[in-house]
Automatic annotation (TrEMBL):
<dbReference type="InterPro" id="IPR051543">
    <property type="entry name" value="Serine_Peptidase_S9A"/>
</dbReference>
<dbReference type="InterPro" id="IPR001375">
    <property type="entry name" value="Peptidase_S9_cat"/>
</dbReference>
<dbReference type="GO" id="GO:0004252">
    <property type="term" value="F:serine-type endopeptidase activity"/>
</dbReference>
<dbReference type="Pfam" id="PF00326">
    <property type="entry name" value="Peptidase_S9"/>
</dbReference>
<dbReference type="Pfam" id="PF02897">
    <property type="entry name" value="Peptidase_S9_N"/>
</dbReference>
<keyword id="KW-0378">Hydrolase</keyword>
<comment type="similarity">
    <text>Belongs to the peptidase S9A family.</text>
</comment>
<feature type="domain" description="Peptidase S9 prolyl oligopeptidase catalytic">
    <location>
        <begin position="467"/>
        <end position="684"/>
    </location>
</feature>
<keyword id="KW-0720">Serine protease</keyword>
<feature type="domain" description="Peptidase S9A N-terminal">
    <location>
        <begin position="2"/>
        <end position="407"/>
    </location>
</feature>
<dbReference type="GO" id="GO:0006508">
    <property type="term" value="P:proteolysis"/>
</dbReference>
<dbReference type="InterPro" id="IPR023302">
    <property type="entry name" value="Pept_S9A_N"/>
</dbReference>
<protein>
    <submittedName>
        <fullName>Oligopeptidase B</fullName>
        <ecNumber>3.4.21.83</ecNumber>
    </submittedName>
</protein>
<dbReference type="InterPro" id="IPR002470">
    <property type="entry name" value="Peptidase_S9A"/>
</dbReference>
<dbReference type="InterPro" id="IPR002471">
    <property type="entry name" value="Pept_S9_AS"/>
</dbReference>
<dbReference type="InterPro" id="IPR029058">
    <property type="entry name" value="AB_hydrolase_fold"/>
</dbReference>
<keyword id="KW-0645">Protease</keyword>
Length: 687
């Protein structure tokens, strides 16, 4: 196939791998064209043969990683009204179950648990099954729940009567997976996903009526915008969030007037984002409006929330990126990042006094769960580092008392004192300092002899936390240094860190990653040819780019669902997610400059005759985000062009989508394959 744009022609010898009926195939994978299925299955067989000498090792790795999981693990239930709700697993179970106990019941008494939804039971017999969510009514009588059994992210919603445990006749197809109940529990709102996999409509469903009669509440005509819905802790508003990657608009519906037309808070302005949460008689709004690049928080009266009435509460501070906010009766809570590290800040709504919850480690991760009730002084958060297992705390915002609720158990044993976590700074090409978080055993020699797995993502402003992972211990305990490069394209060092890794600055992401590899070598953590690079999705694009830029520096590359055919995808506005992606990468249809810039780094377009390192690419047949044909085409072209002997492998999960296998142990099997590959190309594979 040839394609000519802006007077430039490209030829694609592997375009035939894109199924003509791909949209229908996502909903029914059995209709995949025979020649394409044969090709993917042949690639799977080739990969299996190439990795045959590690099969026993993969089983050992799987058993090892499974041994670090508390199989009957349970969340600490969160209080909401008369009950506390939680999730748990059974020993051997792949899927969670949802339960509740009386509000003040003993959290450790399993006999108090009323099982509301059993994921293992619902997913029985299905090759793929993903629970999208579980949302109960205000009166606790019903819940809506959703599932995807193809991996294509078209979710089915059902409604469960919590007293009987039976589902009602109501069934919603092709939803985004979430929903918000009306206050009376007799109806709910949901988003519908269109044939291009874009949530573009909000509907109101009344129980007992067919989906075809649902009332259309909101429809977004711009193909570059997604629609989402959310509720409020006071159950007084339903929020309709309309957004792309850099612009947002919020509409609200009061729950006491369900038929009211959605009220716009502030009209969308390109590059202006805002997010609304309720605060009694005011809304608290997190926004970058007015040049607040790292965001500020304003408030506006509920009766008149327009921008003219926005009043600053937390001012913009350059370099302090406010990530999210929550409001409670007496306190305003925000999660922010300062100096590359997260922190939680509590603000007294009356006095304006603030304090931060303090932590001591050099690098760590925080998660803010908040609470399910508005009138509370207690919020919940999690803490971990690359050596410290996750800890869950309740925190009293008034007394500042911190209560440890749970520490992640590692049944096979884990001694944090056996490991070291560090954060170093890598100097990028333009002088910027790129943080690199790493963990290794204390007895690992730091003389350049250790292999290293270097992970990176670098897109959409997503920051990769320096959190605890039991899985990576399988590498670290075998002498690896495990490192995360906090490269531009994420927001690890503020919003500017994101801006300088997107659009016409995208190449900074790739050179930052190479700089991280160089720094690890310079400080003797590893050596060139001993580094295995890993990334997925947009991080898979990173993998493809660095494979072209500096193949000699890596012994292997693991690219999961890699977005590698960037130019072709951004030129095709019929694909599910292309228009919403233009603010991130550029629109090569309309702009020749964007075309030329994307063409200069698009991994598939820049594969050349050179020796490539060993590569393992992973794909999902029903993946709507990175379609299966991107990694399939990339591997075919790599194998055709490479002048080296290193294996180039593709594994397509024929029963899954973007996230890979859905079960928790099934996912471990995929990680065992990835780690076996990393250990093999590093000369550390065991039989």
């Amino acid at each position: 196939m040839t394609d000519t744009r802006h007077g430039k022609t490209r030829t694609d010898d592997y375009a035939w791998l894109r199924a003509a009926n791909w949209q229908a195939m996502f909903k029914d994978p059995s209709i995949l064209e025979a020649d394409i299925r044969a090709h993917l299955e042949a690639e799977n067989a080739y990969m299996k043969a190439a990795m045959a000498d590690t099969e026993a090792f993969q089983k050992a790795l799987f058993a090892e990683m499974r041994g670090r999981i508390k199989e009957d693990d349970s969340s600490v239930p969160m209080k909401d009204g008369a009950y506390a709700y939680g999730t748990a697993y059974r020993t051997g179970g792949e899927q969670p179950y949802f339960f509740r106990i009386p509000r003040d019941g003993d959290l450790n008494d399993p006999d108090l648990r009323a099982v509301l939804l059993d994921g293992d039971k619902e997913g029985e017999g299905k090759a793929y099954f993903d629970l999208g969510g579980f949302f109960h009514t205000t009166d606790h009588s019903r819940a809506l729940w959703s599932y995807d059994d193809k991996g294509s992210e078209f979710y089915t919603i059902k409604v469960r009567d919590l007293a009987s445990g039976n589902d009602l006749d109501d069934v919603i197809e092709n939803s985004g997976g979430g929903g918000v109940w009306a206050l009376d529990g007799r109806s709910f709102f949901y988003t519908e996903v269109d044939e291009n996999h874009r949530p573009s409509k909000v509907y109101h469903h009344i129980l007992g009526t067919p989906q075809r009669e649902d009332r259309l509440v909101y429809e977004e005509a711009d193909p570059g915008f997604f629609v989402g819905i959310g509720g409020s802790l006071l159950d007084d508003f339903i929020f309709i969030d309309v957004h792309d990657h850099q612009t947002s608009e919020v509409h609200i519906i009061p729950t006491d007037t369900l038929d009211a037309a959605p009220q716009m808070v502030a009209k969308r302005e390109t590059m202006v984002e805002y997010d609304v949460t309720e605060g009694g008689d005011v809304f608290f709004i997190l926004t970058n409006d007015g040049g607040a690049k790292d965001f500020k928080i304003v408030e506006a009266p509920v009766a008149a929330p327009g921008k003219a009435n926005w009043k600053e509460v937390v001012p913009h501070q350059e370099g302090r990126l406010i990530l999210s906010h929550m409001a409670f009766k007496d306190h305003l809570v925000r999660l922010e990042r300062l100096g590359g590290l997260p922190r939680i800040v509590i603000r007294d709504r009356k006095s304006g006094e603030e304090h931060a919850i303090a932590f001591d480690e050099e690098a760590y991760a925080l998660g803010l769960q908040g609470a399910q009730e508005y009138d509370t002084d207690t919020i919940r958060f999690s803490y971990s580092s690359m050596t410290t297992p996750s800890q869950l705390f309740d925190y009293n915002m008034a007394t500042r008392e911190r209560t440890l609720l749970k520490t992640q158990e590692v049944p096979s044993g884990h001694n944090p004192d056996d490991y070291v976590t560090r954060r170093i700074q890598a100097k990028a090409e333009d002088g910027e300092l790129v943080p690199v978080s790493l963990v290794y055993r204390k007895d690992t020699p730091l003389d350049g002899s250790a292999p290293c797995l270097l992970y990176g993502y670098g897109a959409y402003g997503i920051s990769i936390p320096a959190s605890f992972s039991t899985n990576c211990l399988s590498l670290v305990d075998r002498g690896f240094v495990y490192a995360i490069a906090h490269i531009r394209g994420g927001k690890d060092k503020g919003f500017a860190w994101y801006e300088n890794g997107k659009m016409f600055s995208k190449k900074n992401t790739f050179s930052d990653f190479v700089a991280a590899a160089d720094a690890l070598v310079a400080e003797n953590f590893t050596s060139y040819g001993k580094i295995v690079a890993e990334g997925g999705s947009a991080g898979g694009m990173l993998m493809g780019a660095v494979a072209n830029m500096a193949p000699e520096k890596f012994s292997g590359i693991i690219a999961a669902v890699p977005f590698v055919d960037v130019l072709t995808t951004m030129l095709d506005d019929t694909l599910p997610l292309t228009p919403p992606e233009w603010p991130e990468w550029g629109n090569p249809i309309a702009s020749e400059a964007s075309y030329d810039y994307i063409a200069s780094y698009s991994p598939y377009d820049n594969v050349a005759e050179k020796p490539y390192p060993a590569i393992l690419a992973l794909a999902g047949l029903t993946d709507p985000r990175v379609t299966y044909w991107e990694p399939a085409k990339w591997v075919a072209r790599l194998r055709d062009k490479t002048t080296g002997e290193a294996p180039i492998l593709l594994r397509t999960n024929m029963d899954a989508g973007h996230g890979g296998a859905s079960g928790r142990f099934q996912r471990l099997e995929e990680i065992a394959l990835e780690y076996a590959f990393a250990l093999k190309v590093s000369g550390k594979a065991e039989s």
